[in-house]
Amino acid sequence: MAKTDQTQSETRAAGLGANFYKLWVASGISNFGDGVRLTAMPLLAATITRDPLLVAGVSFAGSAPWLLFALVAGAIVDRVDRRTMMWSVQVFRMGLMGVLSAAILMGSDGMVLLALLYLVAFLLGIGETLFDNAAQTIMPSVVRKDQLQVANGRLYAAEEVTNRFAGPPVGGFLFVAAVALPLLFDAVTFGLGALLIFAMAGSYTPSRDAASPTKIRHDIAEGLRWLWRHRLLRTLGIMTGVFNMTGFATFSIFVLYVLEILGLSETGYGLLLAITAAGGVIGSLVAPHLARLFGDGPSFYIIIGMGVIEALAIGLTSSPVVVTVAMITAGLGAMWWNVIAVALRQSIVPDHLLGRVNSVYRLLAWGTMPVGAAIGGFMGNAFGLRSPYFFAAAVLVMLGVAIIPIVSNRSIAQARAEAD
Question: Could you give the domains of the chain?
Fold first, then answer.
């Protein structure tokens, strides 16, 4: 386990502790900025071009690092102080947003600005592979194992409230006021988040055998072997990858769907994203209760079914009300899934391997996102903006059938017992 000082341990024993709340507030502030930015960037692309493939390129560029750098990121996270990694990445991302804002204020040519948008999205994605790996890996050193579901639930609740509820309408409003304004706002939130993480007490460097230094290639291979031999976590990683592929196939063209099929404005797009976040907020708070009620295994099947219904509902309608209800359902399911899956992984994987195993898991889970974005862009271009939703529904049905022999309450309980 990562080394922490005595004061931190005593504080944590009485509750979630001061370090958790610093991390929680930092996450909330940063995610507020992310929600503002993630609304503004697709809108910026849509002002330059209405080509679904080029607009989807923003999602592709931002998610591609999970396919290219996730394994290296995990190996690095298991070698350094995870707190230091997190605040350093926030400072780097603050600088990127400053560069993009300056380019907009200088009146750069449209296609030049689109190319820069792709580059910044890609570099932000690289930072995300490092930051998110460190954030999930640090959690077992911040709270006790029996507190992980509660802590993750609160963290996801803050993320949903700020990223998906408060951020999008603010992003849409600021974008209408001045195109660069939401990006400058995001830069400030990155800086504030870095300060709070820097203020966390203790050291979060994983224990390693100093007498037997290893190369990053060896570290990556060790993480790969561990996860691939663990049938349940390997399957959950692939499941999440399929789910995320379908999600990005639809989200990559969602801004065009909202503007052209639903007929909403840029501000309306931000408001729709904010309203749909209500499901995520609810899901993050009630996920531990739902998991106890239905069991972890059945929960995954229920969530897949919810995803099928959501995709079909959006694909078959032009009503903002129906789309909003469907997206609320999807948000609830996504957070329910995340709270269960992340806590399960944190409770099973040994601490000294957690960064690397998380990175392999995320390669499976998030490496499919650029594939989904490309599929959404191509399908939207060739077959219309509704087609990615029908694709998503069909794939999720096949996923639910495929995992029946592997994922159950029994297999999950056995995996937890073997880790104790």
Answer: 6-203+216-419 (1.20.1250.20)
